[in-house]
Amino acid sequence: MDDLLKIPIDIRLSNVLVKAPPNIANLSISHFREKFEQPEVVPVSRIDGGALHRGVPAQVVIPLNLNKKAQEFTLDDARSLVLCDFGEAFKPSHERRLGRECNTPKAKRALEAAFEPDQSFSYPSDVWSLGVALWDIIGMKAIFSESEPENEIIAEQIDVLGLQSFPARWLTLWETSETKTLQSSIPQRPKDERGTWPTLEHAFEEFVQHYRRERDYHGVFDAEEADVIIALIRGMLRFCPDERLTTQEVLESEWMVKWALPELEQQ
Question: Does CATH number 3.40.50.2300 belong to domain 99-266?
Answer without folding.
Answer: no
